[in-house]
User: Fold this.
Amino acid sequence: MTNQAAKSPLPSFFAEPERAEFLSLRAANAALREQLDTMRGLAFRDQLTGLFSRHYLTDYLEQKMRETGDESNIVLALCDIDDFKAINDVRGHQSGDIAIVCIADILDDLAGNHPVIRWGGEELLIVLSSMPEHEALRLCNRMREEVAAYRIDDGAGEFSCTLTFGLSSFDPDLTFAENFVLVDRALYHGKETGKNRCTFAQPEASSEQR
Assistant:
């Protein structure tokens, strides 16, 4: 409706000075809208990796997931870089940042149209829409294997990282926080049972290691 209003012709009763002022205000409003859209886009992006930020999920994607959750299966996949603190402690925080960026690029490439979100620190969240559980598990295992095989060069030498994934099907009857508890618990179980693996949450049973 705003766009239609912006494109509507000026009333004929506008005098020339009023017409010039109206056009100037309309141009200023259009520029302001564009600036706000740009700022919103920047808020939705993580500065280090270029991935979506947590604000993208909480301010936009969460509602969309709730609207479509009954119609299509959504799988949440939360991954964490194994032993990341050791990378920072031994090689330095710059090497840690390089590792995050490299891993983010790999996951973003393999995820295709599915959003990859830097959830915080070395945790990344992938929202897999319209994807059965077995396909989500297969994709996350491929991501895990690709990351483990990749040699990261920080300028002082090469090193590699592994990922642990927790996965859970999104339940629209639960809040996002409640859904996140399930996927976070699955990730924790994977960490406790050996790391470098994918673990799917089982809501009414113990998590199944796969």
Q: What stands out?
A: Helices lie at 2-7, 16-43, 54-68, 84-91, 93-111, 133-149, 176-192. Strands lie at 74-81, 116-120, 123-129, 152-153, 158-159, 163-169, 198-200, 208-209. Confidence is low (pLDDT under 50) at residues 1-6, 205-209. Residues 16-43 form the longest helix (28 residues).
